[in-house]
Amino acid sequence: MKWVIVLLIILASRSTVVITVVDSQQNPLEGADIYFCARYAVSDAQGMATFKEIPDPSGTPSGACMVEIRKEGYLTIVDAVAVTEDMSLQYILYSAILSTLSGIVYFDTSDNPAPFIALRMYDARTHEFLGPVLTDAEGRFSFEVSEDRSVYCIVSDYEDQKFFLSSDTDQVLVVRTAGILADVEVTVRDDKGRAIEKAHVTLEAGETLFEGETDSKGIVTFQQVVKGDYTLVVQKEGYTPVERGVSVAPSERGGLYSEEVTMVRAEGVLHVSVNTESGVPLSALVTITGVEGTRYVSIEGETDVSLLPGTYTVQASCAGYTSETQQVELVENGIRSVTFFLEKQQRTVTVVTKSFPWEVILLGVVIAVLVAVLFLKKR
């Protein structure tokens, strides 16, 4: 009884699927080879083939029935279909002969080509997405498609403008850019608000790249940037590079989009330690001479000093100790340690011994005798 119930469930879940094959003009195609759900049929004069007792494929790994339709002179179609009930499917076969759709894209006027802009191609009847195309440096594009297929394209994100394309001649697409293009102004300053000149700035999205250098005011401007998401990179020697994502959206005031970037100096850290020979920390004066000139730092045993990358001469001095000098190389975002062990100075006492001044005493006696003689004669 159990197996009978299972069999009834299986039979109840089987469906009938009718597949119709037509050409691009909706004419039935007879003689098309149709492979469907591991079965085979050929379309009749009405372009139809019927497949009966198709099981529900939802329990299979793929969860769908595969469809493949072939006919000489036409492109092969491959599809996957979920079958849960009786259904009718229609497929359009397009010619295997390809034609090239080509042309050039302009923004607003014919003297303003649109380089490196993405175009999206669609089937004009089914609105099926056929693929993307990127214009070259001169705004030109080309796309291969069946000669009997009608195609339209959308330029970038400007959804309300559709351009229907023909292979008869080069297409000229003039896109109205109000609301899609913006001039992007990037201002670069340091952490104290001062303008940074000659910073290298890039704005990139896929194969679209804008690049330039900031002027004396720290500003660089990129013109006619299509709205969308970009990666902004700012580099300047002696500063930490900045990289971040930006979403360019034209503002209401003249289509100008502004972005401000703050850069910080790309410093390293010098760790200085001053001790006695036995390792006891000392209060010392540290003199650092290098790319930033000379700096004097008073320390209590040890300290960290932030400096620009470069070569420095470091001297440690302490009263009663012999000064010591070392030279170090500091790299960007690196940490370099310098340790001093100062020797205690030896105190030298100099004793000077002088002889008794007999000459002076003798001279004084002579003078006294002469004075006495003169005094006696006058009497």
Can you give a write-up of this model?
With 379 residues, this protein is mainly β. The chain folds into four domains: 2-92, Sandwich (Immunoglobulin-like), CATH 2.60.40.10; 98-175, Sandwich (Immunoglobulin-like), CATH 2.60.40.10; 181-263, Sandwich (Immunoglobulin-like), CATH 2.60.40.10; 268-342, Immunoglobulin-like. Helix content is 8%, strand content 50%. It has two helices and 28 strands. It has helices at residues 2-12, 358-378; strands at residues 15-22, 33-36, 39-42, 48-54, 65-70, 77-81, 87-92, 98-107, 118-123, 129-134, 140-146, 151-155, 162-165, 171-175, 181-190, 200-205, 208-213, 219-226, 228-235, 242-248, 256-263, 268-276, 283-290, 293-300, 302-307, 310-317, 324-330, 335-342. It has a four-stranded antiparallel β-sheet, with no helix packed on it. The protein has a four-stranded antiparallel β-sheet with strand order 10-9-12-13, with no helix packed on it. Strand 23 and strand 24 form a beta hairpin. The longest helix has 21 residues, at 358-378. The chain starts with a helix and ends with a helix.
